[in-house]
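Board work, copied verbatim: AAA+ ATPase domain-containing protein
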Amino acid sequence: MRVGVDRNKYQIQIPLPPKIDPSVTMMTVEEKPDVTYNDVGGCKEQIEKMREVVELPMLHPEKFVKLGIDPPKGVLCYGPPGTGKTLLARAVANRTDACFIRVIGSELVQKYVGEGARMVRELFQMARSKKACIVFFDEVDAIGGARFDDGVGGDNEVQRTMLEIVNQLDGFDARGNIKVLMATNRPDTLDPALLRPGRLDRKVEFGLPDLESRTQIFKIHTRTMNCERDIRFELLARLC
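↓ predict structure ↓
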């Protein structure tokens, strides 16, 4: 705990907020995203899986207590770019009334020893201060790649950052108010330590949208547009 003291008598005057690096507080933080499940098109199966592994444990933890099991701590979302991974993560945060913190993996790659690991610790410290929080690591392959020893200091620093994330995943209660989501389009390059049970317990694949999904996406994006009533969205979807 940080406090302010009198310069002469050294008496405690006021409590101070926790010291968190400005680069951490400047990350994308949304107290409650404005995206809902209705804004996510073509991801019906993925929505059901995310509701099961993220929404249900956060809104109804008593069900898992009654069954005597631990819910998943984290979810790995993988698939090609632009298939709705980030959008669905924001929609889950909206549904669970949770704060949404988005971290780009490359932002945690620092040139000084220990800086990336410190940012991860302060990131989870900030997440614990929220009523409920979803931490979303985008492009996690930038820091979560498989480890190998080639004697390069930069790679060693990336590995320290990844190990700190693993340590934080092991350090909080699965039935708590924090859920970790990670997204990548290269799941084959991730370190096995991240993917073992108890860390990223579930994997959700996001594929390219089919004809029905593309039609639904067209309808979602034209809801606020001034369009003709007889537009054939299915025909437009066939042209994509």
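Residues 209-239 form one domain.
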